[in-house]
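Q: Could you predict the 3D structure of 2-hydroxyhepta-2,4-diene-1,7-dioate isomerase?
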Amino acid sequence: MRFRTPAGAVRVGEYDPDAEVVAAAGRAFDRASVDVLPPCDPSKVVCVGRNYAAHADERDADVPDRPLLFLKPPTAVAGHGDATPLPPNTRVEHEAELAVVIGTQARNLDAGAAMAAVEGYTVANDVSNRTDQDREQNWVRGKAFDGSCPLGPVVATPDEVPDDATVALDVNGERRQSGSISQFVFDVPTLLAEITAFVTLQPGDVVLTGTPPGVGELTDGDRVAASVEGVGTLEHTVVREPPA
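A: Sure. Here are the predicted structure tokens for 2-hydroxyhepta-2,4-diene-1,7-dioate isomerase:
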């Protein structure tokens, strides 16, 4: 887990979320004095749409015959414990996802060897502005707004995440989403091969793998907890931005 402390950014190998003190870089810091950072610094986030058939169905959309790709910029990335801004006058929904963190520069990967480029997995919430997404084709307003990609809290190695790992999301303690990565339309190696046929992935880049069914609206003050079995739980709040 990465923290911003009064001494700068540090990485902690073991972290107790209930501890009042964070030990890092040979020093101890009061937990209230540190911020949890995203676990990586991507140059881009490559996202995959409709990678669960049940989610495509709830969106009244077809399952794509090849991975449906779109991008989020670095300014969309937020950390565990951050507040996600909801653009004014929009309907915004949550999308819990398994996120793949890239460990080495990758281009033209073969699916059979693609996992060698993966550092590990983390948790993401692909926060989506449906009001504008449903009006546009490139989804910039709908998907790429500031803070729309909370990530974290840690990166787990692929062998720590079961092949049928559960992806889930709660809002204010109520379960909204639950699915398994075994339900992917396109698995992680297939996604990496398809993406790197067009785009060079750099170390720290992130690939979002799609969301299970159960997406729903977020409102001002909601507390969100997204989880992936084997990784942990990403928590954040949401705050409605006032009209300009």
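Q: Anything worth pointing out?
A: The first helix runs from residue 53 to 58.
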